[in-house]
């Protein structure tokens, strides 16, 4: 079962469930943020986009203290698969489950648009359906999406293969124009060292129908589904 | 009954509260005594122009509001239309003009918040917003500040609350310099048998307050801010602007929709204009009941608030509910889970009176009906403006011909009115809820309908908002007819069938006979067009006193049209999709330059009569568009409006900021003067592209719509020639696209 955490202020929770359940046909339920435990049959946790707690104080800063986050942390530390999109990515960074932080967009205002991202690694549970170097067209919609880590740390992340997605143009080339928010290293998505927690600013759940956003989001969400299906019955974590 | 800090109520104080002498006398006769200070406040807001529609009511009564699909017409929070299979849509447009001028970010944000509450109050989940914005020219730094603030406010609220902003319009004209317009539209989807009304039924039922705490913000927003002209003291009215909290609104949406899925709720109303007062009076009045309320139980943001303040506060994100006896705890549990304040503040009574207690004392005791329903109605004098006839004169023989058609096209594309609005809508979440088939930038937005449980349907809604204020200034009746026709045409361009409309009538001070005449003429035009096109007026809002220092805005009756496309697997976009398609022009071009953008920009003239609208032709054209899409003939369809045919053709070659651009070669017939041919704004025209021109022309012929193949898509140029061979325009699409794309950013980012 896929568990979509519902914080007060989550907006894309139902859309994520729609993508997993109605489009991919996977069991998927919303889990209230006050829950102390994840449902026992949870195989992956999805932290959706939105404005948890209004994004007051700082994006994701309050949601990380929600009771469910302790359970998400235990799940992640045991190797469980966790995906955070947009606000979910911000929550994972605030919770220390992913490195770095998301800052105000370089142009200072919210941006909603379709962007291109390049798959930097296809050997993760989140990208296995794509090939390395493939370009996906996905929407972004955020005001605080500029990924930041110090240069030395970025080099370490790159060396460790933790940069999974980068902004690029339609041909897969990196450029300032193709970077929509001023993220360092054109980073659009990163994973933790172990590779079981992944966060990205683009919204794969809004690119799961041909006429509504295109199908490229399925490459990411479908990969996660494959990874979950490859777990043997009763197993909740990666080996 | 008098609180120690309350002033003495007398005739002079009533006048300060905006009550006329006659209205004051009416208050005295209703009560048989002098009102208390809170009571005076109640009369003042309930009888304000904003809440009572006292100047427009007589005219509005003439509008067509019924139709086979209409479930709820004007009079509730919003109108409702059935869309089949047990589903309905609820929609409305509303103004937040004065607050947005005084405090653009909060003014616009609370405009969005207010219209959302009108929708979910009725049980619908809000799924799509539009915004119709008008400012003064952008060379004025104040207008740039206002535009930035308004866009930030709309985005800041709409994005956080999780409702997609899928379209809208923005125009710039000196008449809005001192009085910008911010009209916000929202649409929600509901099961047709689960629509909730603002009804305080059932004597003894509890009255429950839910949402944000009440503070001192927005007191007299409706009466003093929205119902009076602006002058140099305007900035002092800043405290009348409310402050929005989209996070609370998001929680309130979820909590209300959850509570509505139980059987607990009898009636529900949001606290908008005039807050607790208006909501409780309207609920009691509709049910023919009374309410007794204890102000001490109202959740309060600050201490020491007086009854006057508690009753008149326009603090945002608050709802008033009437539930079944015994259901209080269940409702309380839902709102508390969403971390919202909730309190039983009173009971429904059977005596038709509003009784409000505070600290054990009765501070308000007045009959409901005379306040809510017997508000004054004025038949204000009307007079055609003396200079109207002169304004309408335009002798084309004296207008110098356009010597540089390409230069004119480029100049038009570079105006903020006709340039790309992507700078604005890129700041809005256009996608949340995952239903946006066509977002901003096209003729109409197209949004797929899902059921509340997430099941997708084959239904999609087409949404468009339109008005040409210059045309309305030249002829308010014809201009309003044209706005209705254009909005219906835009909706039809997707392939959808127009169902019904909502409107926001933005006008100046109705106490001036010329303004009242404009308003009456516009409403007459609205009724005529809505009847002819079979699109009833199911909701709306009137915003008057839009003037500063005696200078009124142009009459701006904004029309938002909603259409249904089913199944939506076939739809038309507004731009050319590929090379090698035949370009078909539907409708006829005549020599009409009155009120055109070309005339204003290139000749500095706002004059003439607006183009004629043939509503019978519009209906036939709609048939061609709907059938053309259904039969798979139409791949694109784009309405010809501001800037004329040349501008429409240019837009057809632009496929969004990052899309492919497809050029076109067009040959136009006829002996019309160049500027009429290229830039004239004759109505009832659509530029379509098709793979099967023969079938499309046959369809048009059957329906009696003039149609001809005028060219073909392809190449990277836009080329427009006369059939004599004379080339009028030949230019790289990339160049036009660059000019069009930069029209707003170059003015807003490089300053």
Could you estimate the helical fraction of the residues of chain B in percent? 25-40%
Mean pLDDT of chain B: 94
| Major pleated sheet of chain A | 9 strands, mixed
Shape of chain A: globular
Summed up, the helix count of chain A is 5
Which structural class is indicated by helix and strand composition of chain B? alpha+beta
The number of distinct helices of chain B, counting runs of at least 4 residues, comes to 27
Q: Can you give the mean pLDDT of chain A? A: 95
Low-confidence stretches of chain A: none
Give the percentage of residues in beta strands of chain A: 15-25%
Strand proportion of chain B: 15-25%
Distance between the termini of chain B: 57 Å
What is the helix/strand order of chain A?
EHEEHEHEEEEHEEEH
Helix content of chain A: 10-25%
**What is the radius of gyration of chain B?**
26 Å
Largest interface between protein chains, with number of residues from each side: A-B, 37 and 37 residues
Based on Cα principal axes, name the global outline of chain B: globular
Spans of chain B of at least 5 consecutive residues whose pLDDT stays below 50 are: none
């Amino acid at each position: 079962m896929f568990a979509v955490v519902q914080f007060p202020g989550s907006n894309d929770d139902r859309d994520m469930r729609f993508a997993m359940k109605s489009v991919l046909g996977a069991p998927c339920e919303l889990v209230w943020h006050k829950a102390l435990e994840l449902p026992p049959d949870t195989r992956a946790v999805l932290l959706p986009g939105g404005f948890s707690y209004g994004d007051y104080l700082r994006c994701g800063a309050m949601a990380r203290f929600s009771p469910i986050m302790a359970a998400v942390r235990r799940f992640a530390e045991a190797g469980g698969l966790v995906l955070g999109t947009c606000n979910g990515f911000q929550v994972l960074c605030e919770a220390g489950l992913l490195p770095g932080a998301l800052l105000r967009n370089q142009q200072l205002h919210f941006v909603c648009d379709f962007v291109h991202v390049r798959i930097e690694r296809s050997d993760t549970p989140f990208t296995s359906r794509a090939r390395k170097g493939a370009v996906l067209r996905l929407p972004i919609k955020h005001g605080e999406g500029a990924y930041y880590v110090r240069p030395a740390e970025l080099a370490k992340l790159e060396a460790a293969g933790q940069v999974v997605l980068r902004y690029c143009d339609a041909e897969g080339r990196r450029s300032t124009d193709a970077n929509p928010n001023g993220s360092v290293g054109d980073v659009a998505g990163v994973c933790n060292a172990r590779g079981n927690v992944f966060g990205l600013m683009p919204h794969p759940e809004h690119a799961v129908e041909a006429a509504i956003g295109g199908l490229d989001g399925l490459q990411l969400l479908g990969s996660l589904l494959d990874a979950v299906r490859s777990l043997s019955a009763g197993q909740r974590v990666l080996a | 009954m008098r609180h120690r800090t309350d002033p003495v109520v007398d005739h002079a104080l009533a006048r300060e509260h905006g009550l006329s002498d006659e209205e004051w006398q009416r208050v005295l006769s209703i009560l048989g005594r002098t009102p208390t200070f809170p009571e005076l406040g109640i009369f003042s807001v309930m009888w304000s122009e904003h809440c009572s529609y006292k100047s427009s009511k007589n005219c509005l009564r003439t509008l067509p509001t019924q139709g086979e699909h209409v479930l709820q017409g004007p009079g509730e929070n919003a109108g409702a239309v059935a869309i089949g299979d047990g589903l309905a849509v609820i929609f409305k447009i509303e103004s937040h003009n004065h607050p947005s001028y005084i405090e653009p970010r909060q003014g616009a944000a609370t405009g969005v918040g207010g219209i959302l509450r009108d929708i979910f109050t009725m049980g619908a989940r809000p799924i799509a917003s539009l915004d119709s914005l008008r400012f003064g020219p952008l060379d004025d730094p104040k207008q740039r500040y206002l535009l930035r603030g308004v866009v930030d406010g709309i985005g800041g609220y709409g994005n956080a609350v999780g409702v997609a902003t899928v379209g809208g319009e923005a125009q710039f004209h000196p008449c809005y310099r001192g009085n910008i317009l911010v009209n916000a539209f929202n649409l929600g989807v509901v099961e047709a048998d689960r629509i909730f009304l603002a009804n305080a039924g059932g004597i003894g039922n509890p009255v429950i307050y839910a949402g944000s705490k009440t503070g001192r913000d927005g007191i007299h927003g409706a009466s003093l801010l929205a119902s009076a002209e602006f002058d140099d003291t305007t900035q002092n009215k800043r405290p009348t602007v409310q402050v929005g909290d989209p996070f609370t609104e998001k929680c309130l949406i979820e909590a209300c929709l959850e509570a509505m899925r139980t059987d607990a709720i009898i009636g529900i109303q949001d606290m908008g204009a005039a807050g607790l007062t208006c909501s409780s009076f309207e609920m009691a009045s509709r049910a023919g009941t009374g309410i007794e309320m204890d102000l001490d139980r109202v959740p309060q943001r600050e201490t020491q608030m007086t009854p006057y303040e508690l009753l008149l506060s326009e603090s945002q994100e608050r709802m008033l509910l009437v539930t079944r006896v015994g259901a209080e705890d269940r409702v309380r549990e839902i709102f508390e889970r969403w971390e919202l304040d909730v309190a039983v503040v009173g009971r429904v009574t059977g005596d038709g009176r509003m009784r409000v207690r505070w600290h054990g004392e009765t501070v308000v005791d007045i009959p409901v009906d005379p306040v809510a329903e017997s508000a004054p109605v004025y038949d204000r004098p009307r007079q055609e403006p003396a200079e109207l006839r002169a304004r309408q004169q335009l002798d084309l023989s004296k207008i110098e011909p356009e010597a540089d058609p390409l230069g004119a096209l480029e100049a038009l594309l570079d105006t903020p009115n006709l340039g790309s609005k992507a700078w604005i809508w890129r700041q809005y979440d256009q996608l949340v809820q995952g239903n946006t088939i066509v977002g901003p930038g096209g003729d109409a937005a197209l949004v797929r309908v899902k059921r509340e449980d997430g099941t997708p349907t084959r239904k999609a809604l087409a949404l468009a908002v339109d008005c040409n204020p210059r045309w309305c200034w030249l002829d308010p009746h014809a201009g309003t007819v044209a706005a209705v026709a254009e909005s219906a045409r835009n909706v039809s361009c997707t392939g959808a069938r127009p169902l019904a409309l909502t409107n926001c009538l933005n006008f100046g001070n109705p106490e001036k006979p010329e303004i009242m005449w404009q308003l009456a003429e516009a409403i007459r035009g609205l009724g005529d067009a809505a009847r002819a096109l079979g699109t009833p007026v199911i909701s709306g809002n009137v915003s008057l006193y839009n003037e500063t220092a005696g200078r009124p805005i142009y009459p701006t009756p904004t029309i938002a049209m909603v259409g249904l496309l089913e199944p939506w697997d076939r739809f038309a976009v507004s731009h050319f999709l590929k090379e090698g398609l035949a370009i078909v022009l539907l409708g006829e071009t005549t020599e009409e330059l009155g009120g055109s953008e070309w005339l204003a920009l290139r000749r500095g003239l706002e004059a003439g009569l607006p183009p004629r609208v043939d509503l019978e032709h519009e209906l036939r054209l709609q048939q061609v568009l709907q059938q053309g899409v259904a039969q798979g003939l139409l791949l694109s369809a784009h309405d010809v409006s501001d800037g004329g045919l040349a501008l429409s053709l240019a837009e057809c070659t632009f496929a969004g900021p990052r899309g492919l651009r497809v050029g076109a070669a067009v040959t136009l017939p006829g002996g019309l003067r160049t500027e009429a041919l290229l830039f004239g704004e004759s109505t009832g025209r659509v530029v379509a592209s098709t793979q099967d021109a023969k079938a499309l022309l046959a369809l048009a012929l059957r329906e009696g719509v003039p149609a001809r193949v005028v060219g073909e898509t392809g190449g990277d140029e836009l080329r427009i020639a006369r059939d004599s061979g004379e080339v009028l325009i030949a230019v790289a699409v990339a160049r036009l696209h660059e000019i069009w794309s930069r029209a707003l950013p170059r003015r807003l980012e490089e300053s």
